[in-house]
Write a structure and sequence with these properties.
Elements (H helix, E strand, L loop, with lengths): L1 E5 L4 H10 L11 E6 L11 E5 L5 H8 L5 E4 L5 H6 L1 H20 L10 E7 L11 E2 L9 H18 L4 E7 L1 E3 L12 H10 L4 E3 L6 E6 H13 L10 E3 L3 E4 H12 L7 E3 L3 H7 L5 E2 L1 H5 L8 H8 L2
Parallel strand pairs: 1-2, 1-4, 2-3, 4-5, 5-7, 6-14, 7-11, 8-10, 9-13
Antiparallel strand pairs: 10-12
Length: about 325
């Protein structure tokens, strides 16, 4: 199987690239892996890997990335929410124009292979907007409050439509907060949720901008990769009309998260945490209600299971 990953140098993309070189996708091993990203830091050293460096909205580069006719495409490339809100043109360029460019190239493809490519698109809980209801269910009407969320929702809708027409076989997954992003992972305003785990695990103090009772949705990066690979293997009979799933996530308070970190890394971490709630940050990223995902779970999507497992996997 040949695979393409866009945004391959990102936090999720790097781990996904490593995993698919080691693990079968849809029951088959990878014979060729094309990685497309604006830059590369430590790409996999593997003869099956082909690197394409540049902007995915550049049609010539994108065409080159598709030249090997990948059967599975993981479309991860994006400009994150904070940056997209500060720079609308940049966010639109990658999150919307780049996605449409990819879909159009797949629609107009003239490949030797007759296989319809499977496209796994990473959407986001940003599609829901604010305020959220008392409980978030899978059929909640999306009403984005940020340009990033609007761009992701547009991508979902277009992928479902292109799939309906038979031009591709798409499936979109809405990601919650993925743990634990590195300290220099700029642009993610929700990064403090990762910083709690990383700082306390490494014995460094942390001032949390959300109150102890504030809650958010959590998923480790390894669990996220599990779900992306699972999405690529879903058979057609598992598809819903929107071809979209909200990934399951644990609904955890800051205090419960600290308790989980203490259970893994020792009781001394409790002395390292203090709280200075920021109403804006807490209101956007740590005021989440319970998340119900029975449909996603019924087709095999999963979260980490418990908080200690989340904490351990978050730093893998």
């Amino acid at each position: 199987m040949k695979i393409l990953i866009t945004g391959a140098n990102g936090f999720v993309g790097q781990a996904l690239a490593t995993r698919v070189l080691q693990q079968p996708v849809n029951g088959r091993s990878v014979s060729g892996l094309t990685l497309l990203s604006r830059r590369f830091e430590q790409p996999p050293l593997d003869p099956r890997v082909r690197l394409i460096k540049g902007d995915m909205a550049d049609k010539s580069l994108l065409q080159s990335a598709l030249d090997e006719e990948p059967e599975v495409i993981f479309h991860l490339a994006c400009v994150p929410g904070g940056v997209s809100e500060a720079n609308f043109d940049l966010g639109k360029h990658i999150n919307l124009d780049g996605t449409i460019g990819l879909l159009e190239m797949l629609r107009l493809r003239n490949w030797q292979s007759q296989v319809v490519p499977r496209l796994v698109f990473t959407s986001s809980v940003a599609v829901y907007g604010q305020p959220l209801p008392a409980t978030v269910e899978e059929n909640l009407r999306a009403c984005p409050g940020l340009s990033y969320g609007a761009q992701k929702l547009t991508g979902e809708i277009l992928i479902a439509d292109y799939s309906r027409r038979g031009w591709l076989d798409g499936r979109s997954v809405r990601l919650p907060g993925i743990m634990s992003r590195p300290p220099d992972d700029a642009g993610h305003a929700s990064r403090f949720l990762s910083d709690i785990i990383r700082n306390l695990a490494e014995g460094r103090p942390f001032v949390c901008p959300a109150a102890p009772e504030a809650r958010s949705w959590f998923l480790s990066r390894p669990a996220c990769i599990d779900n992306l690979i699972h999405a690529a293997g879903l058979p057609k009979e598992s598809m819903n009309a929107s071809r979209q799933w909200q990934l399951p996530a644990q609904h955890i308070s800051m205090q419960a998260l600290v308790d989980g970190i203490a259970s893994v890394h020792g009781e001394q971490v409790r002395q390292l945490i203090s709280y200075q709630p920021d109403p804006v940050i807490q209101g956007i990223y740590a005021s989440y209600p319970p998340l119900l995902t029975p449909n996603a779970e019924a087709v095999g999507f999963k979260h980490d299971g418990d908080i200690p497992t989340l904490v351990r996997r978050a730093l893998e």
